[in-house]
């Protein structure tokens, strides 16, 4: 037996949801550039779950279902107040909260296709309520109830800030949600599929996936990018900061990718949004610093930015607290996780690879007195 470290290059499943071929990302055959420029997040959710774009009435129905299901059991909100709330990372809180949601879902153990689809809608609806409510409760503010006439993107921003978002903010946020929705067999999606391939329930799959997304080599990188930008502080400091990191062989967060070689097609959309929003906010330094970092890292290491790099300055420009960046990634990626979970159930086989054993050969047990 031979092993591929990190399963690099291993094709572990078939999927009809999204593909990365020659650095082109598609959702069900639609180019991500096309979707980023034209689609609403709700349309993308439908696309990922049904493998076709919705007709107008189907989209209206999904939007209605999502709006109807956004409220979260009071017990889950109250539970937030029992956490050491100013210290816990919001991704850790979200991981617990999604698991707890399952306790209040009467259909949690119903494994029928219909019940699993209904749970997908409920989880997608409630996850943005959870993130925004946590963001408020930890500051001593009351959660804000969603408005049923707002889009998913607008509702998130509204529930988080308590004020109506501007059109440009909704446009940027919707685009970010579309861009993050799915990405073939990334680590968190694989995690979700492994969990449910044991025929565990949907909540297990999403909870496990949140845990995998949290790490800085995956979704957690967007928060680390903002930490780095904040530490650098100004364009003048970029060169020395980045050169020192590279000389010390440290990783620059938001760069590199396991699959893309020429570059992540999502990054340019976020770069464009970052330029627009930082200009509107009169805080161009975040964009200018990012551009200079990109020049250095691509120039010296030939590593292009990934989706996490420019999303940081975009979310910062939307006045979102930095530790909520990864939970926002989770809000969007939940749609992809759920699509993969439903696909896994539809043609399931336990996922159980092998390990190449590299430990000692056969040994004889020695009693504790003789060791
Ligand atoms: C949504 C997402 O999950 S996108 C990815 C988000 N994560 C990040 O941005 C974190 C920074 N990037 C990384 O750590 C990596 O590029 C990953 C995890 C994304 C991909 O990792 P892998 O395919 O396993 O590549 P690996 O980590 O083995 O790196 C290969 C080489 O490139 C270097 N490298 C990779 N990424 C970076 C980086 N961001 N900065 C500097 N060097 C890097 C490594 O040091 C290594 O060099 P070496 O061969 O001299 O030792
Ligand atoms: O595909 C990956 O390995 C990571 C990634 O870009 C994503 O999950 O969006």
Automatic annotation (TrEMBL):
It catalyses: oxaloacetate + acetyl-CoA + H2O = citrate + CoA + H(+). It comes from Planococcus shenhongbingii. This is Citrate synthase. The lineage of its organism: Bacteria, Bacillati, Bacillota, Bacilli, Bacillales. The keyword Membrane does not apply. It comes from the Bacteria. Pfam families: Citrate_synt. InterPro entries: 2-MeCitrate/Citrate_synth_II, Citrate_synth-like_lrg_a-sub, Citrate_synth-like_sm_a-sub, Citrate_synthase, Citrate_synthase_AS, Citrate_synthase_bac-typ, Citrate_synthase_sf. Belongs to the citrate synthase family. Pathway: Carbohydrate metabolism; tricarboxylic acid cycle. One of its GO terms (molecular function) is citrate synthase activity. The gene is citZ. Keywords: Acyltransferase, Transferase, Tricarboxylic acid cycle.
């Amino acid at each position: 037996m031979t092993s591929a470290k990190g399963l690099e290059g291993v094709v572990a499943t078939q999927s009809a949801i999204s593909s990365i071929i020659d650095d082109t990302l598609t959702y069900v055959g639609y180019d991500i550039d096309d979707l980023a420029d034209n689609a609403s997040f709700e349309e993308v959710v439908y696309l990922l779950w049904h493998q076709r774009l919705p007709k107008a009435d189907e989209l209206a129905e999904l939007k209605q279902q999502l709006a109807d299901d956004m409220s979260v059991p009071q017990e889950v909100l109250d539970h937030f107040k029992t956490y050491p709330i100013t210290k816990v990372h919001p991704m850790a809180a979200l991981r617990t909260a999604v698991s707890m949601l399952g306790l209040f879902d009467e259909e949690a153990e119903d494994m029928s296709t219909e019940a699993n689809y209904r749970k997908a809608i409920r989880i997608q609806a409630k996850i943005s309520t959870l993130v925004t409510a946590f963001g408020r409760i930890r500051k001593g503010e009351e959660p804000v109830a969603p408005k049923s006439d707002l889009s998913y993107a607008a509702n998130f921003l509204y529930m988080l800030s308590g004020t109506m978002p501007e059109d440009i903010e909704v446009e940027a946020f919707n685009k970010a949600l579309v861009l993050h929705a799915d990405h073939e067999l990334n680590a968190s999606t694989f995690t979700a599929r492994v969990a449910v391939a044991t025929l565990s329930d949907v909540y297990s799959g999403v909870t496990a996936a949140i845990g995998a997304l949290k790490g800085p080599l995956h979704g957690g990188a967007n928060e680390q990018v903002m930490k780095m930008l904040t530490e650098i502080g100004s364009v003048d400091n970029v060169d020395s900061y980045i050169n020192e990191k590279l000389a010390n062989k440290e990783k620059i967060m938001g760069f590199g990718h396991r699959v893309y070689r020429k570059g992540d097609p999502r990054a340019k959309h976020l770069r464009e949004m970052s330029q627009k929003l930082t200009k509107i906010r009169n805080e161009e330094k975040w964009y200018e610093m990012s551009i200079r970092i990109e020049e250095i890292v691509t120039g010296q290491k030939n590593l292009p930015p990934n989706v996490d790099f420019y999303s940081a300055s975009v979310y910062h420009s939307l006045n979102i607290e930095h530790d909520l960046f990864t939970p926002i990634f989770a809000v969007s990626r939940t749609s992809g996780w759920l699509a993969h979970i439903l696909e896994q159930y539809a043609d399931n086989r336990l996922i159980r690879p092998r390990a190449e054993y590299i430990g000692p050969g056969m040994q004889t047990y020695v009693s504790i007195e003789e060791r």
